[in-house]
Design brief:
3 helices, 356 residues, mainly beta, four-stranded antiparallel sheet
């Protein structure tokens, strides 16, 4: 078990104070690991050079290693305003004590000017995704610009370990936005979030897509399912998991509004009483768990198998059962028999429950 406070560049005082505290439990005893969140400054002519590093550890699927991923930056600053930065992303592997470092990969991003005065608004940083079970033989790296109002996704690379322990990298044709789940380096479930910004929640179509065998299979399409372009309510996939045999996907559908709160028109919306009524009716069911079939061979679109209102997904227990939270209680639901196994385990937030 690993607890790692989130830290991103540029660092602030709280990152320096709290970011280095990483707690690790190996099943027998707990200890703190040294994380080496670092920041140093030096004068370069009339500018201030700020060098920062923010490594983040992840568990390995084999239970014998830790994987470390770090963004490093050297920013030039004058009078508190960023001028430019040179960013580097690094990956390495250690034993469970953080020792015996083994280099895996690195990527140097091009020198980047910061015309807005904030390098995070215009320059790329590395964003990592790994499986819930820990890093196995692959991980996903996406170059992301945080932006002022919304992130911009530049490229995605898959790093995969070969038989000889060598790591090979494959760059995808299009960047991934938010990885929800994977079954392998070539089977990826992706969410494409709404581009809404500046106080607006519904400016585009939230989608969830399964990349499988060279196909991109649509699993969830907000506008197709909820027909909500005129109102500033976004329906989206909060979590999603592939069944182990890849025959189905279970997902939690959530919304940016609640049923009893006022709903304003979208930025370009026109009042539509029927649409408004349909949206409000849908909101009363959410969050909800939806299960859809997947058949990558036929190319047919996914078919809804089940819909469970007022529920949140944790994951698949096996090919037939999912673990979910209903009314703050854990329950197992059999997709084939439509039966539940309720428990007495209370969960305040589904995000706090994990299935390993």
């Amino acid at each position: 078990m690993l607890f790692v406070p989130p830290v991103s560049l540029p660092l602030d005082e709280s990152d320096m104070a709290e970011g280095s505290k990483t707690w690790f439990f190996d099943g027998h005893s707990s200890r703190f690991l040294i994380r080496h969140v670092e920041r140093s400054t030096a004068t370069t002519g009339s500018n201030l050079a700020i060098t920062e590093s923010a490594p983040t550890p992840y568990l390995a699927a084999d239970g014998a290693h830790l994987y470390w991923f770090a963004n490093q930056a050297r920013r030039l600053q004058r009078d508190g305003v960023d001028l430019s930065t040179k960013n580097t992303w690094l990956a390495w592997r250690t034993d469970l004590s953080g020792s015996a470092r083994e280099e895996i990969a690195s990527m140097v991003f091009p020198d980047c000017a910061c015309p807005t005065g904030g390098c995070e608004e215009t320059c790329s940083y590395g964003q990592i995704w790994v499986a819930d079970a820990g890093v196995g033989d692959f991980f996903v790296l996406t170059q992301v610009i945080a932006g002022k109002d919304q992130p911009a996704y530049k490229s995605t690379s898959i790093y995969k370990e070969g038989d000889a322990g060598k790591w090979a990298v494959t760059r995808l044709d299009s960047p991934l936005h938010r990885v929800l789940d994977t079954a392998s380096a070539s089977i990826i479930l992706e969410a494409i979030p709404d581009v809404g910004c500046c106080g607006w929640a519904n400016q585009s179509d939230d989608q969830t897509v399964l990349h499988l065998a060279g196909q991109s299979i649509p699993i969830f399409d907000e506008r197709a399912e909820y027909k909500n372009p005129d109102y500033d309510v976004s329906f989206y996939t909060e979590t999603a998991r592939l069944v182990p045999d890849l025959s189905a996907v279970a997902l939690t559908i959530a919304a940016t509004s609640e049923p009893n709160k006022p709903i304003q028109l979208s930025q370009q919306g026109q009042a539509d009483p029927a649409e408004s009524e349909r949206i409000r009716k849908s909101l009363f069911d959410l969050p909800a768990v939806e299960i859809k079939s997947v058949d990558g061979k036929t190319g047919e679109g996914p078919r809804r198998i089940d819909f469970l209102p007022h529920a949140a997904l944790i994951g698949w227990i096996d090919d037939k059962e999912i673990l979910l939270v209903e009314e703050h209680m854990l329950a197992a639901y059999n997709v084939s028999t439509k039966t539940r196994r309720k428990t007495n385990v209370r969960v305040e937030d589904a995000a706090h429950a994990f299935l390993r």
